[in-house]
Structure formats: C-alpha cells, structure tokens
What we know:
The protein is an all-alpha fold. It has helices at residues 2-9, 29-37, 42-49, 51-56, 67-86.
Amino acid sequence: MAQTRAFAELGGQLLFGTDVGYMTDYDPSDEFVYLQRAELTPAQILAMLTTGPADRFERARTGRPRPAWRRTSSYSTATLERTCGRSRRCA
C-alpha cells in the first residue's frame, strides 16, 4: 500500500485491471479496500477504472458522452464513498 500511495503522490498513472478469466473470484471489493487504505480518494479510484485507461490507451476522444454517464459516474463515486465509509474492512 505504501508503494501505491507513493507512486500516486509522485504523479504515477494508476490503472485498475482484473484477473477475471484467470481467477474464480470475480469480486474486486478487496482491491478497492486496499486502494482506499493506500489513501486514494474515491475519485482517484474511479479514474483508475474509467478516464485513466481511456487516456493511457488514447481512447479518450472516441465515443460520445451521454447524459446517463454523468449519473453513473456520480453514482459510482458516491457508492465507493458510502461502501468504504461504512465498511469495517476499509478502516
């Protein structure tokens, strides 16, 4: 966690990926807990899932934003905050 925090503080680009297809556990909740323990904000974690990969792989200008995306993004950030705010595992 210290390495992740230090990397983020130095401006390193963090991307979130999964091992789905290689593992039988498809729930990434523990990963989110560890990222929060590394003192990443919900917005930083959400960016690792969305805008980070789009920027990294030069896909940020492809596709078209839709109004529903804003609701989903806001909902996702709020959900991460609520989930980690209430979970004993995030402490």
